[in-house]
Amino acid sequence: MPLHVAIENFIHDLRYRQVLPHLEPCERLGDLGCGDAPRFLRKARRRAKHCWGLDLKTPESREGNVTLTKGDITKPLPFSDGFFDQVTLLAVIEHIEDPLPILREAHRCMRHGGRLIVTTPSRLGIRIHDVIRRLGLVRDVEEGEHKDFGMSLGVLRGWIERAGFKVAKAYSFEFGINLIVVAEKP
Q1: I want to staple 115 with a disulfide (CB 3.0 to 4.6 A). Which of 80, 81, 86, 89 is the partner?
Q2: What is the fold, at CATH topology level, of the domain defined by 3-184?
Q3: 114-154 per-position pLDDT tens digit
Q4: Residue ranges per structural domain of the chain
């Protein structure tokens, strides 16, 4: 296995360890911006009767209770109102010009009492990722792909609250390199 793949897998696993304890057993889980493989959904598949992953890079497929759908998460989502019990956006919003519309779409597609879990690198995390990318230690992001929102817990909480969610938990992990917000749809 190439070194960059091992490092990228390690980074993903660290993120998933933070997210999994916040997932509750449910009927339907959606992972928006899942990438080209359902890494997270493979780990979370026992927490939901059915899991959906949506991304422009993913091939249309089904693997047990995981369905992958090719689609643009910055457009209206192909799910009905109240469809999901839980939605995750893991290391996604830092790639999007305007995260608020996707958070609003996640809100629309989630049932009342549903849970949203968002992770993103902090501003420091984006800078560190750019350095290790330039060193060739990771290859998962192109130069300039990360948007600089001055990412902090305050910025992230603000977007999530403006989208209509109530924040339950918000904290940094990995020494402040990454942020997580767990929120609910009232």
Answers
A1: 86
A2: Rossmann fold (3.40.50)
A3: 999 999 999 999 999 999 999 999 988 888 888 878 899 99
A4: 3-184
Model pLDDT, residue 61: 93
- For 137, counting Cβ atoms within 10 Å of its Cβ (0-12 exposed, 13-18 middle, 19+ buried), the class is middle
Token reading at 96: 């999007």
For residue range 19-72, list pLDDT tens digits in order: 999 999 999 999 999 988 789 999 999 999 999 999 999 999 999 999 999 999
- Residues 145-166: pLDDT tens digits? 888 788 999 999 999 999 999 9
Q: How far from 137 is each of 47, 62, 134, 147, 148, CA to CA, in Å?
A: 32, 31, 8, 20, 21
Sign of CA dihedral 113, 19, 74, 98: positive
